[in-house]
Design brief:
The structure is a homodimer of 411-residue chains. With 411 residues, chain A is α/β, with parallel strands linked by helices. Helix content of chain A is 40%, strand content 20%. The first copy, chain A, is built from 14 helices and 16 strands. In chain A, the strands form four sheets. A five-stranded mixed beta sheet of chain A has the order 6-5-4-7-11, with helices on both faces. The longest helix of chain A is centred in the last third of the chain and has 25 residues, at 311-335. The two termini of chain A are 28 Å apart. Chains A and B meet through helix 1, strand 13 and helix 11 of A and helix 1, strand 13 and helix 11 of B. The first copy, chain A, binds a DNA duplex (30 and 30 nucleotides) through helix 1 and helix 3.
DNA sequence: GGCCCTTATTATGGCCCCCATAATAAAGAT
DNA sequence: ATCTTTATTATGGGGGCCATAATAAGGGCC
């Protein structure tokens, strides 16, 4: 523990606790704040005053029920600042504009350019930012910054992209380049972690102290919340669930290994396995869809056929779900999280995959030695916007200290 | 973050930081403390005064080198308190008496009773404690308590044993029973976590913010240090590495599952596989040792034969190491720890097992995408005493706030 | 030995934090 | 119009840290 050099950190922490209380519990009178935080009335009144002065909180009404002097009711002010979030991990890029409550005010979507050159991506993000700046919903002076969820290995803190197999980028000072193009602060985080933050702050996991958030699409990654905080690991490289080994001497993976979960069970593997089975002549509704050429099959076709009960597609998707489920179950056994959130394009497009993973993790055939079967496991509440919203929320956290209840400062 | 109701927590934190500095860095003058903690001289002088008053620190000398007034040199006082630690996880039980610096003053060992009845175990611990109380090394008034490392699933905080397949205990209020028998505070933690704490506070991992400590014996477990703190999970059930699935439909495990790492690669599996191979008539130096009856073979014989190069024993041990190594590597890929510590009877008795696990984790055949191959992976520095010493250290941490640098109070 | 120089240690005042308690304000109730 | 009741503000106390200014206690030098 670091020494504390100034009693003012006490006030910072308490300010954060009050603000987070108001954000999560909604409007309340100051006496209720004092009760909930266990601070005395003079202290909590002073803190609310500061938050009002900073614009983060406002008085919305006075309640005059019951005898006694009426109470002034204060509310978290979501309009105190806004930020932009972009998610670069899907087949289409997503951009959002959110307020401090993570209400999504604007959404934009664009097909991912092919190839996704750094300059083309920056171009699109800059024009998105420009458009948002002129949105009627936004007072431009209240724009806190831009957050980007990116399918990449990042250097800790610097915003430097070490490598992204997904985008085929290597060694790109992306945050710096974006800051120049966009003219605001830029914060980067990888996609699974952005989603984990989103769900912890705004979504399905707001009560979870320890969370595994697993993202399943063309890759498989995991964001970890431990003790209520994002955990990134010693080199900021935690969560590479997709590159854990699940099949000895299995399929080659783009990371250079063999038998990685991603190579065996992510979107690419599901498509490949379905095409292979078709080419081996197995019966399936996909045969018609493909019109004689199995190479025309897309991943969407496979997961849709699976949800409609096509045996070939179902068995391919179920096999992937089994593998992913086993890997997630193992992670749960290691980490004993409060809950698990599943997200990503495959989780949202395939009911069968989601159900299979959940069933394998909760495996009720085993004795309840580990309380795995009682642990909640749900889909991301913010769906396919989770990555972008989480990245945008990251801006509020980093610049203003929100959501963690620590060190709140003026916008 | 909880609100802070009192500025005194600032002093508590700073007192902890100063004490931990002195413990880790050795004796130093107060001006050096001020420099290292970045506190001002008046503040750090006052803190040292308090620690001296509490008996946790003492002035050992004054240095009169160089010009200027000589400095008084202060030192962490390891004799301010002592505690007892017991490890119930091995083939023999181990008891230690340590001081605040974890210097081991006394060691006792006893063969594990068979069966290990609760009452027999309590009996032995109570007589051990009685003997230590009368040890000349110990001022009995300075005994802080007793810590126990136990191969069991524990309820969070209560000291209640939910179940221990190893000891064949179920639902035992062990801490309460021990407190009655021993007459001091009793703290329980499972064995891998006790070892992890030991290595983090006193051993090979003292610089590691994020640590995986893997214990390999008849069972396989993991203790996790995250952000410098022990992580136990939502239900205090984290770290069950031995019950992660590694072989689909594999060997039945005592947990009720199949193909768990523990069932496939822990001590029991190694012995079973060696005996099976012998019974199938494979050539091995173990055949002579066994004198015709493979059932006479013990685990020790197998690992010794393996280290001496016996092909059968080597191949059995190496196979176990491969599986364990893969599981550990996967955990490392998920968690990106600062380092990994391996401990437990098998790790210390088998050079081959240790080397195999290390080689698999660091697999240099793969591209260095994940920095796994550069991550240190070492044996527990305190060897087979680590569990008992860690449990004893737990007493100092819980009762006096040591080692974490937080909330230090008088002994 | 007395004086200067250097560094350690102590004293003082300022600002901030929280708390407890008491005073003041602003309603409904009677 | 007074009496409750509850909300809000004022005041003083104890504690934290800091910056700065004394004061102490050596060595070096003449």
């Amino acid at each position: 523990m670091e020494p504390i050099k100034d009693v003012q950190v006490v006030r910072q922490v308490n300010r954060g606790a009050v603000l987070e209380l108001l954000r999560r519990e909604g409007p309340m009178p100051r006496t209720a704040i004092a009760r909930a935080t266990k601070l005395t009335a003079p202290t909590s009144f002073a803190i609310v005053d500061e938050l009002v002065a900073a614009g983060l909180v406002r008085c919305v009404a006075t309640s005059r029920s019951s005898p006694g002097r009426p109470r002034a009711i204060f509310q978290f002010n979501p309009a105190a600042a806004y930020s932009l979030g972009v998610d670069l991990s899907g087949a289409s890029f997503v951009g959002v504009l959110i307020d401090l409550s993570a209400r999504v005010l604007e959404t934009r979507r664009v097909a991912r350019p092919n190839p996704p050159d750094v300059s083309a991506v920056i171009q699109w993000i800059a024009s998105f930012a420009q458009e948002m700046r002129s949105s009627p919903a936004l007072d431009p002076s209240k724009l806190a910054g831009l957050g980007v969820a990116i399918p990449a290995l990042l250097e800790a803190d610097s915003g430097h992209v070490i490598t992204s197999t997904n985008l085929n980028w290597h060694d790109v000072p992306f945050a710096r380049l974006l800051e120049e193009a966009v003219g605001t602060g830029v914060y980067l985080e990888n996609t699974p972690r952005s989603i984990a933050l989103c769900e912890r702050w705004f979504g399905a996991a707001s009560e979870a102290e320890h969370l595994l958030c697993i993202n399943i699409g063309m890759g498989i990654g995991m964001g970890l919340i431990i003790d209520g905080k994002l955990y990134v690991g010693d080199d900021a490289q935690s969560g590479e669930l997709g590159h854990t080994a699940v099949v000895p001497n299995g399929a080659p993976c783009r990371c250079g290994g063999r038998g990685c979960l991603e190579a065996e069970a992510a979107g690419g593997a599901i498509l490949r396995n379905a095409v292979d089975a078709l080419q081996r002549g197995m019966a399936s509704s996909l045969a018609e869809t493909a019109n004689g050429d199995p190479r025309r099959i897309t991943l969407d076709m496979v997961v849709n056929a699976a949800d409609e009960g096509d045996p070939l597609a179902s068995s391919v998707v179920r096999a992937a779900g089994q593998m992913i489920g086993t890997a997630v179950r193992n992670a749960v056994i290691l980490l004993n999280p409060t809950m698990v959130v599943l997200s990503g394009s495959l989780v949202h497009s395939s009911q069968l995959l989601f159900e299979t993973v959940r069933a394998v993790v909760q495996n009720r055939a085993l004795p309840p030695l580990h309380r795995v079967s009682a642990m909640p496991i749900v889909r991301a509440q913010l769906g396919l916007l989770a990555g972008a919203v989480g990245a945008a929320g990251l801006v509020h956290q980093r610049r203003m200290g929100l959501y963690d209840g620590t060190k709140v400062v003026a916008p």
